Amino acid sequence: MNRITATFLKQKSLLNIFITAGYPALDSLPTLASQLFEHGVDILEVGMPYSDPLADGPVIQETSSLALQNGITLQRIFEQVKLIRQTEKDAPIFLMGYLNQLLQFGPEAFCKACAEAEVDGLIIPDLPYEIYQEKYQSLLKTYGLAISFLVTPRTNDLRIKALDQACNSFLYIVSDNSITGGSKDQFSSSQLAYFKRINSMKLKNPTMIGFGISSKKMLKQAGNYANGAIIGTAYLESVKRGEQSNFIKELTQQNL
Amino acid sequence: MMQPTENGFYGEFGGAFVPEMLYANVEELRQNYLLFLESDGFKKELADLLKHYVGRPTPLYRASNLSSHFGAEIYLKREDLTHTGAHKINNALGQILLARNMGKTHIIAETGAGQHGVAAATACALMGMPCKVFMGEVDIERQAPNVARMKMLGAEVVPATSGSKTLKDATNEAIRYWIGHPDTYYLIGSVVGPHPYPDLVARLQAVISKEIEEQLVKEVGVEQPDYVIACVGGGSNAAGAFYHFIENKKVKLVAVEAAGKGIDSGESAATFQLGTKGIIHGNQTLVMQTEEGQIIEPYSLSAGLDYPGIGPMLAHLLHTGRCEALSATDEEALQAAMLLTQKEGIIPALESAHALAALHKLSLKPKEVVVVNLSGRGDKDLGTYMKHFNL
């Protein structure tokens, strides 16, 4: 059984944390990651810093710019993931980035490097699922890589089903019509209705809710409608303040 | 005519590589744009505005002194004489009518030098629609007069503070705002962005080549020009000037990009020569980028040409050999601007001066008919000219 399947069999609301590789320092990722796993974080999403990250809000943009200034490269990210894998054998690791990064590295070389680093899956927000199916699906399969697709409140049911078909890890439920980040401390009733709608669709993939999740309350709410939640911006803000240890401790205590 | 596939591809270039958060916005536009653009009501209203508000058709002027100088028949397509002083208004008015037809009430736009921002703000003032223009923080400082124009026209100028704080980042910011505000219409300024924008903007700028074609037949008595020359940043004036000539292989199409301080200087915006296939602002095209796909901030003295990508239609024309790419350095463009000013009494925009600079690089024969698209006037560049010519 692969790591993704095994993880989603756990009878709990899963926590997926997003880290921008190369932030705050070039080699921070392995240390931050092991701290997360010590506190019971279930899935790690590693952001590959990009110069023009269309789907990201100001906080992740800033961390990406700083990481690039720090000299982060894809090659280094693969090395850092290998380091993480020396101790963390079970948690799925996803790489999140933009299609142009994959294209320039070379799609096959990229997938091969992922496989060697024991990456489990990819999240490429600007890769349309139709193009994925046409050009990349068999390549990812060859290298044992899964893919996740985003669903938003404006994605219609027909398209959600098509995305679900193309997806083979978890559907990333974008909580709001927005880019990453946000400042609310709870979901609105229309957001909850949207989660409920997705949940009732009986999709083949598990779901995780992300974008704008910053509080324990939201994390718990997300767990009622999905298999878990993804936190990026709020975590990176805690890293910026140097308080990530407490931040994660609080979240995971609530998550038990 | 040059139309993309249903998914927006010109050969291998184009498409819509957008995050799912943007999918519905782009899809709504894709489903609607041709319905409106091809309707009689829309065509009539736009034609009326272009005639009475913009001042079209713009003259096709035979530059006789320049013709003697170069030993060929040089014609200038005078887009510099349009209202607001550049071709950008053709697109802004077309898209604002489209926005209104689609029931949108708010407009956003991006701008680099401010010419498209001014055109968008002008269209919004005319239609009574609120307008936000995203502009790089660096550009806001460099282009103060255009910022003032936009404000006077009632637009809100929103500083883009991410990345390199210039046009590419202003475009990113506009797209991000659009994600969060789907009721807004994003009025893009060039033949770039996800499908259908490149096709939409090319169609709205195609009026330039349509007029050139008609004017050559009626006023000059030739069926077609030997050359059409246009400068290229994102490529909207080139797409417009080439559009109706693309199928006519007798017409040589020349796109002139900004070589900045020289192609190999590390400071240029020569995407045709230095770019490689990649993705920028939701389409696949030629992009100036690092080996790992990080997009490079380009340089040109002219703020309208320093874009690290190029419209996918133009990338395709170049790739298939239909269009020739030349480049002009800052210095060559400055000299070309001075030459036009002193020979013809026309001060061109620094962008358009790049197209003029190409005249030196072609081996023109007497009687050959050369049309240069004079995309904008030079008032906005006076500061640059003052500095470089010690005026």
Please give the structural blueprint.
The complex is a heterodimer of chains A (256) and B (391).
Chain A: H1 3-8, E1 14-20, H2 28-38, E2 43-47, H3 58-70, H4 74-87, E3 93-96, H5 99-105, H6 107-116, E4 121-123, H7 129-142, E5 146-148, E6 150-151, H8 157-166, E7 171-174, H9 189-199, E8 207-210, H10 216-225, E9 228-231, H11 233-241, H12 244-255
Parallel strand pairs in A: 1-2, 1-9, 2-3, 3-4, 4-5, 6-7, 7-8
Helix pairs in contact in A: 2-4, 5-6, 11-12
Chain B: E1 9-10, E2 13-14, H1 20-37, H2 40-54, E3 60-62, H3 64-70, E4 73-78, H4 88-101, E5 106-111, H5 115-127, E6 131-136, H6 137-142, H7 144-152, E7 156-160, H8 167-180, E8 184-186, H9 197-205, H10 207-220, E9 227-232, H11 236-242, E10 252-260, H12 271-274, E11 276-280, E12 283-287, H13 312-319, E13 323-329, H14 330-344, H15 350-357, E14 369-374, H16 382-389
Parallel strand pairs in B: 4-14, 5-6, 5-8, 6-7, 9-10, 9-14, 10-13
Antiparallel strand pairs in B: 1-2, 3-4, 11-12
Plain-language structure description:
The complex is a heterodimer of chains A (256) and B (391). With 256 residues, chain A is an alpha/beta fold. Helices cover 50% and strands 14% of the residues of chain A. Chain A has one domain: Alpha-Beta Barrel (TIM Barrel), CATH 3.20.20. In chain A, strands 5-4-3-2-1-9 form a 6-stranded parallel β-sheet. A 3-stranded parallel β-sheet of chain A has the order 6-7-8, with helices on one face. Chain A is globular and about 45 Å long. In chain B, 43% of the residues lie in helices and 18% in strands. Chain B has 16 helices and 14 strands. The mean pLDDT of chain B is 96. Classes of the chains: A alpha/beta (256), B alpha/beta (391). Chains A and B meet through helix 3, helix 5 and strand 6 of A and helix 1, helix 8 and strand 11 of B.
